[in-house]
Amino acid sequence: MNQEFVKLEGLGNDFVLIDQRHTDKQLTDSQIKKIGERRFGIGCDQILILKAPTNDDADFSYHVFNSDGSKSEHCGNGLRCAGAYFKKFHNVKNSVIAQIGMSTYEVKFLENGLFAVDIDTPIFDPEKVGLGKIDPIDRYTTIIKDKPIEYGAVSLGNPHAVINVEEPVREVASIIGPQFQEKGIFRDGVNVGFFRIVDRSTIELSVWERGVGYTLACGTGACAAVAVGQKWGLLDHKVEVIQEGGVLDIIGDKIGGKLKMIGPANFVFDGSIEV
User: Fold this and answer.
1) What are the pLDDT digits (tens) for 236-273?
2) In terms of DSSP bridges, do strands 202-209 and 238-243 run parallel, antiparallel, or are they unpaired?
3) Is position 218 annotated as part of the catalytic site?
4) pLDDT tens profile 196-227
5) Where are the domains of the chain?
6) Options 3.40.1160.10, 3.40.47.10, 3.40.50.300, 3.10.310.10; which CATH number does 2-119+265-270 get?
7) Which of 241, 261, 242 is nearest to 252 (CA)?
8) CA separation for the pair 275, 32 (Å, rounded)
């Protein structure tokens, strides 16, 4: 089967977008995995598949797959990239509305190639995050190589463990990230974020993503780090999140309230692939 696609990126977090709003075609798990392979396919962190929405207020239904073929519940950078797709290819001027499950998310088009998305209210309930029926606390602890690791747990539509570190975040993420995931603490796996505080309005962040590994940026990971940092009393309501791929602005109206994510998204190329 020949499949048309569009390649996009948000802060170096790269996506293959496939628009299936007007077709009944379905990609198999193996076809999705092939598309995500960097040596034998197109290559990306995640695949975004757009379908016709069931909500009349939405422009499209949004489905996210990791490069290993597994499904992801949410992706903030991907939402901005979907907005960039509609702006470039469908001449949409101001915003689009995505449907994810039963929820909708508006992607607003700003100036200078920036896009804004209101992300879910952070969920700290341990059972809903995937930790099981345990008492909620601000900081959980696990042991990795005989060293205690404190982390916060939060869901932004997908599960995140957030760890505050003093070391360079990229180095720590690459070492501790996979080890944390291998412990199987979270029921459905977890994205593991490592943030270092520059000041109360600035952090550095690296994320080891579930089903992908290290990525240059993670939108919901940035929101998760800010949500946990605010809950711990370490961060202000507006935070600049510096990742290897660039900068996101995360704005919270109050601690534990909804978060707004602002950042760029760009078209890379389009084409077709035999899958």
Assistant:
1) 999 999 999 999 999 997 777 889 999 999 999 999 99
2) parallel
3) yes
4) 999 999 999 999 999 999 999 999 999 999 99
5) 2-119+265-270, 126-262
6) 3.10.310.10
7) 261
8) 9
As given in the structure block, the two tokens for residue 209 are 């993503």
CA distance 275 to 261: 34
Task: Tally the residues of the chain.
Answer: 275
- State the catalytic residue, choosing from 44, 75, 81, 223: 75
pLDDT, averaged across the chain: 96
Angle at 69 between CA 15 and CA 169, to 5 degrees: 60
CB 56 within 8 A of CB 46: no
Is-catalytic flag, 44?
no
Q: What is the dotted CATH code of the domain comprising 126-262? A: 3.10.310.10
Closest CA to 46 of 22, 76, 20: 76
Record the pTM.
Answer: 0.95
Strands of the chain (E only): list them.
Answer: 2-10, 13-19, 46-51, 60-66, 71-72, 95-100, 103-109, 114-119, 140-144, 147-155, 159-164, 191-199, 202-209, 213-215, 238-243, 246-252, 259-264, 266-274
Report in angstroms the alpha-carbon separations of 257 from 58, 121, 134, 200, 228. 23, 5, 23, 18, 12
d(CA 235, CA 228): 9
CA distance 17 to 5: 6
